Amino acid sequence: MRNIGRLHATHRCVTVLIAAGALLFIGWYAASWNTPRTLGHALGLAAAFLWACFTVIMSKGKLDPLHAVALVSTGSLLIYLPIYVAMCGTRLALLPPADLAVQAIYQGILVTIVSLIFYARAMDTLGVSGGAAFGALVPALSALFAIPLLGEWPNAIDWPGMLLVSVGVYLASGGPVPGRTRQGR
Question: Which residues have CB under 8 Å from 18's CB, separation 6+?
Answer without folding.
Answer: 133, 136, 164, 165, 168, 169, 172
